[in-house]
Amino acid sequence: MTPPPRSDGPPDVLVVGGGAAGLTLAHRLLSDTSVAVTLVEAPDGPLRPAERTWCYWSADPDDLAGVVGASWPKLRIHGRDGGAVTVDPAPARYRMVRSAAFERLVHERLATAPRARLVRATADIVRNVADGAEVRATTAEGRSLTLRARYVFDSRPLRSLPPARTTLLQHFRGWFVRTAGDRFDPAVADLMDFRVLQPAHGLAFGYVLPLSPDRALVEYTEFSRTPLSTTAYDSALHRYARDVLGLGAFTVESAEQGVIPMTDARFPRRVGPSVFRIGTAGGATRPSTGYTFSAVQRQSRAIAAGLRAGHLDVPEPHGRRALAMDAVLLRALDTGRLDGPEFFTRLFRRTPADQLLRFLDGETRLREEWAVGLRCPVGPMLRTAFELPFLRRRSNDPRVQAAPREESKR
């Protein structure tokens, strides 16, 4: 049953959604006892997502150390020709968080914090009202529930993506596999392995996160316009595991599957005086890579700091220069002017690891971005950059959800 409202009045903040963005913001806000927090999560059922994998790189796991399930000091890219590029991004490490562990942490904190609670209900309507905002929801028992607060932060997926000049999808299926013998190096994460068959449009790569010498998350990912069927993903995964990785006999322990939008659409972060969008719905997904988790951490820290200081600030998840560069890259990939596997392989070969990871996170300075840009194919990128201002933003197919995979590997 949904708990009754606390006697000390309505909460200051309602956080809608229990994915990466919602859990992270609730986690940050719980550090400030002056802010009352209610997290609204969907009850068990079809609207509640399965367990997911989130990854990010960081020199310090910060207060997430207790939920980081694995980390890797080295990253590797395999070119289409089989040549490997291994980089050491020290002091940063690539870190993995499983959603179930993060959810347990946040739920435990909500249960013990004096001005916090968890409400299990499906949010139907989020809207501004005269003195703040309200969420109208439905409990698992079918009971209507109205919650009010000064601010609402809504992380629910949008029903359709905003108009854009370019929209690709990063879609994937991954297996947690256990092999008969030792087949993996637990010190190295394979971010992109282009030794898979490439689609006619877009690009494809394998992705391997070793959890032990005989266990790993193995994924097949495409950047293209349309997702595949589960059967097609499984076929690609079988080929990758057998013919490329040479895993021999293995058992699939579990699987996960999803889609991330890669688009130059503009995502409004504020939809009224008291309602804000966060996570992918608020533009936190990096258009050119699909990475979301790091941007969610930055944005949540800024929101928590703003509430503590008494002046709410919901900053842009990514800077304007980063978004402009991403728009060019997406268009170049979508038109076929840019050879995706060659581009990403060359980028890792020619760019210092620490600089490249900061670039992918949108934390580089202008001079560093110029240095990265000079390592790109100049002709296709310039042609695309000149073309973009003359392209119209078009509405996307409403069947393309703006939900991240919430977000496996990103």
What topology emerges from the helices and strands here?
Layout: E1 13-16, H1 20-29, E2 37-41, E3 53-58, E4 68-72, E5 74-78, E6 84-87, E7 93-98, H2 99-112, E8 116-129, E9 132-139, E10 144-149, E11 151-154, E12 167-179, E13 188-193, E14 203-212, E15 215-224, H3 230-244, E16 250-263, E17 275-277, H4 293-309, H5 320-335, H6 340-350, H7 353-360, H8 366-373, H9 378-387
Parallel strand pairs: 1-2, 1-11, 2-8, 5-13, 11-17
Antiparallel strand pairs: 3-7, 4-7, 5-6, 8-9, 9-10, 12-15, 12-16, 13-14, 14-15
Helix pairs in contact: 1-2, 1-4, 5-9
Description:
This protein is α/β, with parallel strands linked by helices and 410 residues long. The protein has a domain at 13-52 and 97-161 and 266-309: FAD/NAD(P)-binding domain, CATH 3.50.50.60. Helices cover 27% and strands 30% of the residues.
